[in-house]
Amino acid sequence: TEQFSIYPNYDYEKGKQELTGYTASQNIKIETADLKKVSAIVDSAASAGALISYINFELTLDNQNMYKAQLLEKATQDARIKAESIARGLGKGVKGVVSVSTNTYDYYPFPLFKAEDSSVGGAGGVAQAREAAASITPRQLEINAAVSVTFRI
Which helix (H) or strand (E) holds 75? Predict the structure, then answer.
């Protein structure tokens, strides 16, 4: 459960506030690493009356950190190769690193389905969510990392 709330409903007839009941809502987050289960999970939730606001695919924090480390390592190796090429062109060699900084790390998960507005949860929104979950196709996630390295030549 990510959020749970209960709030009163009122009717305002003849300038008078009258309590007519309460509305309860619960937002839950379901995670699975098995993409084959997504359609069944969405179907099951919709059949139970859940209003589906979005279906999103994200890397786990552990995977984000692993890919970030790999990309930063690759970026620094690339920086060294470029520095060595420039140094050779100047008839010199790379003698060391003066400074290194990480400039950026970008990762953008992609939503598979997002309801147009929160009231869409009726039959139309549920049908759209079911359709989206049934048509899952692999996609590439774009992850970028950049470093700035100053080498001593």
Answer: helix 61-89
